[in-house]
Amino acid sequence: MPYRVLSQQEVADYLHLTAVDIERLVKDHDIPCEVRGKRVVFRKRDIDEWASQRVLKLADKPLAEYHQKTTRATQAAFPTAAIMPDMIHPAFIAARMTAKTKASIIRDMVALAVNTGRVYDSRALITSIEEREALCPTAFPGGLALLHSRYQQPTFSEEPFLVLGRALQPIHFGSPDGCPTDLFFLVCCQDVKIHLHTLARICLMAQKSALLDQLREAEDANAMYDCLVNAEKEVLEKQNAAA
Prior knowledge:
Layout: E1 5-6, H1 8-14, H2 19-27, E2 34-36, E3 39-43, H3 44-57, H4 60-73, H5 84-87, E4 93-97, H6 102-114, H7 122-135, E5 139-140, E6 144-148, E7 161-171, E8 181-188, H8 192-208, H9 211-217, H10 221-242
Parallel strand pairs: 4-7, 6-8
Antiparallel strand pairs: 1-3, 2-3, 5-6, 7-8
C-alpha cells in the first residue's frame, strides 16, 4: 500500500530506527513528513524513496550502526545473518557485460534478473529503475552501483534476490565523484525491510572489505560469487567482534 500514512512509531519500526531517531530527523527537517493538527505523519511512498537514498549515503560508524539494527530486524528471514547464499547464485552473475550506456546497462541487468525466473513484469521493473535513477543515481564512489526499483512492490518479483554484472568497459552512471562505474548490483526485494538491509549489507561489504577489487580480479561468475560470500563472512565476523 504505497499511499499509506505512517505514524512516528510506525515509521521508526519500518526503517529499523528508534522513535528518538525519527524525532531528531523531523527536528532537523531531514525526513519527509507532514503535520496534521498536532500529529506528525509520514507518507509511505515518500519514506520509501528517502530511505534508500539515505542508506546509500551512509558511511563508517553510521553505516555500521544502521546495519547492525537491520541485521537484528531481519533475523527471522536470515537466521544465520548471512544473506548472500540465499539471494544470489553464480547463475545470477554476468562477468562480461558489453553494455556501454546507462540505458543499456539497465536493460541488460533486468534481462539478467528475468533469467532467474523470479521477475513478473520486466517492463515495469525497467521503468521503475529508470524512475529511481532519475530521482537520484544509485552509483557512488568506488565504481559500484546498486540499482533498484523506485518502490518495492510484489508485482516485480516472486522473492528477494540479487543479480550482479561486471562491465567490460566502465561507464558514467552518475557517481558523485564523476568517475565511471563497472560493477552493478540489481536489488529485487518486495519487502522494504529486507530491501534496506540488503542495501546496507552491500554498502558495508564494499566499504569494509576488499570486495570491489576482488570482484574486478575474479576470473568468472563462480569466482565472483565466492568473493561475495567471503566478503560477507568477513564483515559479519568484524560486526560480531565489535558487538
